[in-house]
Amino acid sequence: MPSKAPLLLLLTAVTCLSQFYRVSNSVIAPELARDLHLSARQLGWAGSAFFFALFAVQIPVGLWFDRFGARRTVAVLSLLAAAGSVWIANASDAASLIGGRLLVGVGCAASFMSVVFLCSRWFEPARLATALSWVFAASNIGTLAAATPLAWIAATAGWRNGFLGLAVVTLLVAALFYAIVRDRPPQTRHVERPKESLAEVFHGLAEVWRTPGLFPVLSMHFFAYATMLTVLGVWGGPYLHDVHKLDGVARGNVLLIMGVAQILGILAYGPMDRVLRSRKKVVFGGAAISMMLLIAMALVRDPPLWLAIGMLVAFCFFCAYGTVIVAQGRSLFPDRLAGRGVTAVNMAQCLGLAVLPAGTGYIVEAFGAGDTAYRWVFGTLAVGVALGSIAYARAPDNASI
User: Fold this and answer.
1) CATH of domain 5-183+198-392
2) Is 64 exposed, middle or buried (0-12, 13-18, 19+ CB in 10 A)?
3) Domain boundaries, given as residue ranges, for the chain
């Protein structure tokens, strides 16, 4: 049996980069607002731009996975991420920042779904959620790097130089991914199928979207990770700055702790479907606790800093149940539809990640970027999780055992 370590390391590397790009706006949001003259609404749209791009190209990514494999798809798209990072480094206003984040979003569009696509081939089904939790947890090194380290770089070398350096790192990872990763274990007997015609491609897409139980899973997936990242990756930094007056490094330290909590949460949720013999119980439990924490943050007026940090950290831990939903979604599809299936599932998450940051940006702007504004944001997110949970009640409980 060949070692899976090179595969897991390269999957971790590409997802680390994606995580960094996703949350980087949060810790340097005040600096971006100052240097590029951004409003809260524009900050929200900059946060969402990455995810609108992810959403827009998920169907092509799924087709490319099934036709060309994840190895070539990820390597080629990562070149666009590097170009987008250079664009961000040279941004002069809201439009150029949003444009750069759109290009980076296209470049990262295959990163996380390559993990699901490849791990489903390299690991047996019963251990898929655990394998995903390893990579997704390790990928949050990117989240941690976008906290205190990015704040330090912004304070010393400037955030523009930080993104130029990130472009170089992205190119290096793309080259290694292409050189080392393989789409199947070498010992797997794989019968090559004839290339699909255009009609067969779209017939496969239609088959994916007709899959029983898909839409309840999509409903929960729309809110789960997007809710967490809206707090951690978009408004966590501005909230700590506007309400608790923390400077860049102090904000980075808190976001770093929140990122660590998310990592621990992902690792804790990974094997829970096998422990409880149910994926729905895991998802419902995580959603319920996350919703209660959001309600608490919405109801407590001007909380002391220690309480605010405690609730934010706990929320990031308990809202890390999205990995279980990903594994549940992948189990709905046969291998021949794996690429189109996992990207169809990911479309719901990408759409949520696009809608929630932008929508909450209007709330923050309407209420003046103070304690009241952020409490409305937390309350709105709690309602979203509740709606997703109601729809998810109809999902099949395809446990991993």
Assistant:
1) 1.20.1250.20
2) buried
3) 5-183+198-392
